[in-house]
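Lecture 7 notes: from sequence to structure.

We start with a single chain of 236 residues. Read the sequence below before looking at the structure.
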Amino acid sequence: MSAEKRLTVLGHLRELRSCLLRSVIALVIAIPIAYFFTDKIFAILMQPVPGLHLIYTEITEMLGIYLKVTLYAAVAIAFPFIVYQTVMFIQPAMTRREKVYAYTLLPLIFILFISGVLFAYFVLLPPALNFLLTFGGDIAQPMIKVDNYISVLVRLLFWIGMVFEIPLVMFFLSKIGILNTEIVKRFRPWAYVLAFVLGGVITPTFDPINQSLVAVPIIILYEFGTLLVGIARPKK
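Now the structure, written as tokens:
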């Protein structure tokens, strides 16, 4: 390896270290801010199931889940800055056109993620939790641990938020020349199958109704992404 190439690699590693350090600092700053809102976040997470009484069975369990929710909230607060640092790290390898697309689409990342979280909270969670908490109610009464409840909700909210990024990712990949209309149309059958697989993985239930509540939006988002690919790279 030449001296010039070693210097380039070392420069990239130093830049990566700087980006990671700045991201960690942002997360540390966000933690006390998130801690102030943790009680309100708990109240919001409890609203999809009014009257639900959670329990904990270990001495340190409630403290642990309280800190976990605080950390989740801190990551959400620092997330825009972390994404910005990620873009700053990879932007030297991007062309001018790719940089323009990345900076233009950056705000949409957060808008689509929040849209997915709101969809999961208001549309998906009520029927999913109702199914889980009432199934077999004539046999046994649910006694839900707070750790299990919070973990299920946070996982759903996060992954549905990520799923809503599908059209934006497809549009960006088409603008930089990786995707075109022929590819996305050829992949469509597999995308439909993958949508239901993801629906089964993301949802904590086994019934096809709640699975479809996740799979159908994924399919719609894929088709919307296909439309955006056609707009970004019209067929010649």
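The chain has two domains: 1-93, 96-236. Keep this in mind for problem set 3.
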